[in-house]
Amino acid sequence: MKRQRFTEPTNPFDLVSDEIIFTILDLLSSNPIDLKSFSLACKSFYSVEAKHRKLLKPLRSEHLPTVLKRYTQLAHLDFSLSPRVTDASLAIISKACNSKLRSIDLSRSKFFSATGLLSLATNCTNLVEIDLSNATELRDAAAVALAKAKNLEKLWLGRCKLITDMGIGCIAVGCTKLRFISLKWCMSIGDLGVGLIAVKCEQIRSLDLSYMQITEKCLPSILKLKHLEDLVLEGCFGIDDDCLAVIRHGCKSLRKLDVSSCPNISPTGLSSLTRATSCIQQLTLAHGSPVTLALANSLKSLTMLQSVKLDGCVTTYDGLKAIGSCCVSLSELSLRKCVGVTDEGLSSIVKKHKDLKKLDITCCRMITDVSVSHMTNSCGGLTSLKMESCSLVSREGFVLIGRRCHLLEELDLTDNEIDNEGLRSLSRCSKLSILKLGICLNLNDEGLAHIGTSCSKLMELDLYRCVGVTDSGLLAIIHGCPDLEMINIAYCRDVTDVSFSSLRKCSRLKTIEARGCPLITSSGLAAAVVGCKLLRRLDLKKCCNVDDAGMISLAHFSQNLRQINLSYSSVTDVGLLSLASLGCLQHLTVLHTNRLTPSGVAAALLANSSLTKVKLHALFQALLPERLLKRLEVRGCTFEWREKIFQAELDPKCWKLQLEDVMQIVL
Amino acid sequence: MDPEDSLCSSEVWTKSSSFPNIDAQQHEQKWVDTSILDYAMDQPFQEYEEQTELKASLTCNSNQQIGILNKDSDQMNAAILGSKVQDWDPRAMLSNLSFLEQKVHQLQELVHLIIGRRSQVLGRPDELVVQQQQLITADLTSIIVQLISTAGSLLPSVKHNFSAAVPLVGQLEPPLDRVLFASESGTNNGVVQSQHGDGTKLPEVPTRIDESSKYGKEQNMSVEEHELKDEEDADESENLPPGSYEILQLEKEEILAPHTHFCAICGKGFKRDANLRMHMRGHGDEYKTAAALAKPHKEPSYETMLIKRYSCPFTGCKRNKDHKKFQPLKTILCVKNHYKRTHCDKSFTCSKCNSKKFSVIADLKTHEKHCGKDKWLCSCGTTFSRKDKLFGHIALFQGHTPAIPLEESKGTAMSCDRGERYETANKLGSINFSFGSIASGGSSVETIAAADAKGGVDDPLTYYSPLNFDPCNFGGYHEFPRPPFENAENAFPFLIPTSSNYNQKSGAESSCNNLE
């Protein structure tokens, strides 16, 4: 008895119920590596983890039978990493998961047809979400099959160009519970199909009709939908003022409306539209008619408006002033790339809208310190400010931003005059998580040190072509911001292995762009990737001192790498082949690497079974055997053959001058 | 209307028809003669090209028997011209009287000829013989027409009006026109039979003209087949008390005539008066004036005066005025479509299904639009010719879905296929149509046979009347710039609904008033 008592509780987790372990696993699931470690701990954990797992993102569909045997409770399948999913795979899934499957993402996959979808729709009766975007080969038969999924609520059919009104009609009749449907770029679907969707699927909340050939005929039935909240009509050339003038029925439930790139909608048409949809909170009018008084007046009836996007519109002072006075409480405004935004116009807006949280004035090149001063004075609550290329704003202007807008979380100052003083004042924005300082030539390590010491929540930092940045600045960031997920040090030519290797401390790094840093070597890379197990994107273009040694350690540690650019590097066949052990490498760009041989490339391509997109020099197209290329294409890999001439790197200041010259010519 | 009352022409005509055996040889010879004489006739015609009334009278001369007449008629026309200028001239009157005398002589000759033939002819009635007879009849009619027209010009008051009407160029002489009606009614045993040739009965004639012009107008306006159908249908429910309207009955060949408006100069036929007016411009500058090109206006007094309804010439038909439960037809277009649909062969076959046949071309076109395999199919089995109709159906009914054909590629193939088919259908339609126009012209022998079958041989009127169109069909005629339909004009006075008609009509009316 005694002995038994001692031997029984060998594993304390045996006493813990599965439910508790499931809760623990729920907390772990943010990091896939943790889950993997957990399941590898012991057999019981392995089975518990398998039982608990709901979401699976398979790399390739070949192993589906065994994988599905292991994970019995799967509800969500994401095939965005496996380019090849055949009808057979879908049949296996439909048998194994049957009624448990709730969502499936096939947006990046090819090689399946109506047959596979039919088995999915008939067996997986509880399927709620299906993403079929980019399935350009699917025809109406697939839509008929899909219509069998009676419980479908979300459906993406973007770029399904061959599905016609008849197909979408079947879906409309079959899937009456639909709440979300995206028909973007469905060129063969017209008014009749969309109209039928609106008639049959009364539960629709969100409707994306971008770039479709629809006219006013389907609009009345759409606006009769009682629950419609989000309507996207981007790039619908068939909708014009006359169409909108006919609208009688108001849609009280609509919250978001996007009519960007509809060149035939003028302020008059817009006013009839806004009259019908008075409860809109978010309105996107990008690339539309000029922002004039008439347009601003058409917004007057929208009392609940919170967000306006006017990207790329021609603006007038009157229009901006009227927007400033008419809209009640804007929290978000985008004037991105608007022509004609002046200090007066912007000031009149920011003076009125003191609750502004997000402001985008990218490329509003005419604004100066005046509007920055007004903006920082009245909009202290800004959380997001994007002001790329506002080159007339002086260094002092940026000091003001840091001094007055403490709540900033996202700040884009690309191509501006900001200097170290500005960065020092920005260090008060302790919540800053995204900071873009690309092409800011006036700052150096000293400024970055301020950021590093106070902005510990920084997740994204863009230092593209910040020539003043060296090791010490980068080290300050790395030490101060352990949560970094993205860092761009492209063309920071003075960065060496010293700082680069310490990137290993940022264990959450997903993206490293180190293009054009010639001082980084393989040893630096090897040291960095040891800690970056989540790394997905790595750009080492023009890092001419990175060679095979770096690749070998990369392949060993960064098992999640999806995208790599090795152009102009010193990688040879060996390095390329070693990358084959990266299970999910999808995009590979290797240009201008004169140490590669055709056979080496062929071997690497064959070994790397997950590749979906490969950029190679056009020479290889002739050198690689055609059968090999065919085979890879069947696997789901596409090739881009480039014939770029080798370009010598320019001095950054010279580069910027050149850029400005080009812009002068354009203007 | 007693046939005994009718003109001598019709009497003669009936006689000849009762003895239809004419020597074929003689007949052929006669044809040759005709063409030659026709040529000869052509010249004076050109001479007087500017003088329209002259032309009009000339157009009445159709056959060799009146060939001699040409000079006389020229004189006569000159006289008429003169009379126009000086209002009333005793000399012109004299020449007119002498002209009448000549005419009467001619008539006598003609009757002699007929009598002579009657004795010659043996054997069964041949088609050619019939045609020859027909020609004689036509000659007779034309002579009578001239007689009456000249006689009419003798009346000073009438002539006055007549000259007043002259400025409206390009049309038939007013008195002549009136006479045409008379002769028409005489030949066809029409409703208005009794008015002809009698000066006192003149008021009736303008009424007739009015009706005919109305017809012309109507044809201009209502082109859509649906409208016509509707009109005919709506007609059913109409409850006019019998006697409250005037019943008019057109003859079969009038109904089947391909064209209703004819050029008085070259005889070309048109479906619409507007097209005729456009055509007339080519005949000289006088037709290019605004007045000549203007749309003929209606006389409001006549419009309000009488309600006209139409009767179908087919005995035993419900639309025939002798039927117990007679239901009149509202317009001439209704008559046309009714007659074609009910009493004619369905000669137009659908090119798609090859089973459906139609006698009205528009019906065929309507059908062909909807006929074909590429239909939009619903899961319930209902097919639709239009996609939007299918979607409307699906939107309406719960559980119905679009049914997609198994071949996936059909979608694209279908659309282009359809376009092609539509085109071919159009082509075919037009071919059919041209054929149809010939057929309904009633000139070919086959059609006569068909008419035989339909109309019944025992009725001489229906039997012969298609031949009123003949001239266009017989060799060489149409090569000369003379109107091939001149005789037809006699038979169809309403086929020349022109501005002068209206003016003349009103003139005639006023003249009548004056007389009274």
TrEMBL record, chain A:
Q: Which Pfam families match?
A: DUF7885, LRR_6
- Per the UniProt entry, the signal peptide is none
Q: Which residues form the F-box/LRR-repeat protein 15-like leucin rich repeat domain?
A: 84-285, 326-474
Q: Which GO terms describe its cellular component?
A: SCF ubiquitin ligase complex
Q: What is one GO biological process annotated to this record?
A: SCF-dependent proteasomal ubiquitin-dependent protein catabolic process
PANTHER family given in the database record: F-BOX_LRR-REPEAT PROTEIN 3 (PTHR13318:SF105), PARTNER OF PAIRED, ISOFORM B-RELATED (PTHR13318)
The entry's protein name is F-box/LRR-repeat protein 3
Q: Source species, please?
A: Cucurbita maxima (Pumpkin)
UniProtKB/TrEMBL annotation, chain B:
List keywords of the entry alphabetically: Metal-binding, Nucleus, Repeat, Transcription, Transcription regulation, Zinc, Zinc-finger
Q: Where is the composition biased (Basic and acidic residues)?
A: 207-229
Q: Name one GO molecular function term.
A: zinc ion binding
Any idea where the C2H2-type domain is? 261-288
Q: Where is the composition biased (Polar residues)?
A: 188-197
Q: Name one Pfam family in it.
A: zf-C2H2_STOP2_3rd
- Region (Disordered): which ranges? 188-241
Which GO BP annotation is one of this protein's?
response to aluminum ion
List localization entries.
Answer: Nucleus
Q: Which domain of life is it from?
A: Eukaryota
Q: This chain belongs to which protein, by name? A: Protein SENSITIVE TO PROTON RHIZOTOXICITY 1
Origin species, per record, is: Cucurbita maxima (Pumpkin)
Which taxonomic lineage does the organism of this UniProt entry have?
A: Eukaryota, Viridiplantae, Streptophyta, Embryophyta, Tracheophyta
